[in-house]
Specification:
- Helix content is 34%, strand content 15%.
- It has a 15-stranded mixed sheet with strand order 1-2-3-4-5-6-7-8-9-10-11-12-13-14-15.
- Helix 15 links the parallel strand 11 and strand 12.
- Helix 4 runs parallel beside helix 5, helix 13 packs parallel to helix 14 and helix 15 packs parallel to helix 16.
- The two termini are 50 Å apart.
């Protein structure tokens, strides 16, 4: 038999107020400030739009955050915006304290935020229906310069929510301090991006993800905006393609000018610490220029799904901006024809700082891994290591694992199954796979106790799934 805890007197009082909307609104001016957060949560969750609107207009704390904006009830979201309009129209008096409206799609500990302290962060859902934006005449607004903080995730075309919110802030931008902290742009036309950046100043963006499918000439036209992002800490560029000009000397010269224009902007990103570039065609033979332009040492360098030249690799250990790397990701960079000794030198230089290394899909061979093993054995801070989809023999993998005694902080490590697990046609030999992986696991356990480790084959020719060995063999569905 279960017993339900009876509501407290305070809870009963809040419920009574919510049942009498007119009484609740009239009581707000005299309501003890300690009751505001709980009543606001109840009104918000219960869909009491008029009460929410009135409470925002009389909010007594420095912060009003989007903690609760996980609801699909857009009437409530609109009520919050309407309450802000009411706040901006009010005559000033000493009781007004609202300074920041935080609409970011992250979770905050509500009870800490309303007192002015920010704690916690995890993903939350966005509002996903179209609200009706009410036009507020500018002459009705007073100069409060309320700070509005948001994230924008824009895909293909702007959806109804973005259109409405952008319309709201555009009409009020003279009375608001607009801060977009995290901007993600996926296949959005250039004109739309520039229009958004005319409202949300580029200098306040801290995280930018451009996954646009532009060619390099279009990216070059965007560079004046990129160069203004003086607060940018993280930059992710994806899928920038070769120009579609006609071939010829003039075309090559024009393209090189576009590339130089893009690279020059890196010197203006004073706060950049994390740089990720995925599928950027012009990186080959230009990494030296990019790394020289950087103003600060990088904590993260991620270059995936394209090509690097030997001269690019040769410059890595010479760049002072890579000497403090914590995360290095070269997934999908085909290195089977490259000399990896420069990469080994870089790994030795960052041995005291490197925490994650991802070389999946590089198709590295035995002799190349042998060049890296001495440096890898010194990377004592490594917590994540990925070598999947490379081509190593059983003796070379044993040699690698026998040099990992110092890697005691490793949380996740992923290794390819040795090439002896395949027949002459590339098909997986199941029994040999299980036997050799057990032998490799025993080699490692003789030195240290791994936390999370797996050996994996390439995808099966028949079903496309992998055979994996962790606690034991897990075979693909067709085996």
């Amino acid at each position: 038999m279960s017993f339900q805890t009876p509501p407290t007197l305070e809870e009963l009082g809040r419920q009574a107020l919510l049942r009498n909307e007119a009484l609740a609104i009239s009581a707000l001016e005299k309501l003890p400030w300690t009751l505001f957060p709980a009543l606001f949560k109840d009104a918000f969750n219960g869909g009491h739009t008029r009460i929410v609107k009135a409470m925002v207009a009389t909010w007594p704390f420095p912060y009003l955050v989007g903690t609760l904006m996980k609801t699909p009830n857009l009437e409530i979201f609109q009520a919050v915006l309407d309450g802000v309009d009411m706040y901006l129209k009010r005559e000033f008096h000493s009781g007004e304290k609202l300074q920041v409206l935080d609409l970011r799609n992250v979770y905050h500990v509500f009870w800490n935020i309303w007192t002015g302290r920010e704690d916690g962060a995890c993903s939350a859902e966005t509002v996903n229906e179209r609200p009706v934006v009410k036009v507020l005449p500018r002459y009705a607004l007073r100069r409060r310069h309320l700070k509005v903080v948001t994230d924008l995730y824009l895909r293909l075309r702007l959806n109804g929510e973005h259109i409405c919110f952008l319309q709201w802030v555009r009409q009020r931008k003279d009375f608001l301090q607009l801060h977009c902290i995290n901007m993600k742009i996926w296949t959005v036309p250039m004109c739309t991006v520039k229009e958004i950046l005319s409202v949300f100043h580029p200098g306040r963006i801290e995280v930018l993800e451009l996954n646009t499918g532009w060619d390099v000439s279009t990216l070059a036209r965007f560079t004046p905006c990129l160069g203004q992002m003086r607060s940018l800490r993280k930059l992710f560029l994806a899928y920038i393609y070769k120009n579609t000009f006609r071939t010829g000397t003039r075309t090559a010269d024009r393209e090189e000018r576009c590339i130089s224009k893009v690279i020059a902007q890196f010197s203006k990103l004073h706060c950049l610490q994390h740089l990720s570039m995925n599928g950027i065609y012009f990186l080959k033979d230009h990494m030296k220029q990019i790394l020289r332009c950087l103003r600060n040492p990088l904590a993260t360098l991620s270059i995936t799904c394209h090509h690097l030249s030997q001269s690019d690799l040769n410059y890595f250990p010479l760049s002072h901006n890579l000497r403090q790397l914590k995360h290095l990701d070269l997934r999908g960079i085909l290195l089977f024809a490259s000399c990896l000794k420069p990469l080994g030198v870089l790994l030795e230089l960052v041995a005291e700082s490197l925490q994650s290394l991802d070389l999946q899909g590089c198709r590295i061979k035995d002799s190349q891994l042998t060049d890296l093993i001495p440096a890898l054995s010194k990377c004592s801070k490594l917590t994540e290591f990925n070598l999947l989809d490379n081509d190593f023999s059983m003796p070379t993998l044993k040699d690698l694992l026998s040099h990992t005694a110092n890697l005691t902080k490793m949380n996740v490590e992923q290794y390819p199954a040795p090439i002896q697990c395949y027949d002459d046609y590339g098909y997986i030999l199941v029994e040999r796979f299980a036997q050799l992986c057990l032998e490799l696991m025993d080699t490692l356990r003789a030195l240290r106790q791994p936390k999370r480790i797996l050996f994996s084959t390439d995808p099966c020719h028949e079903c496309g799934e992998r055979c994996v060995y962790d606690l034991g063999p897990r075979l693909c569905p067709c085996r």
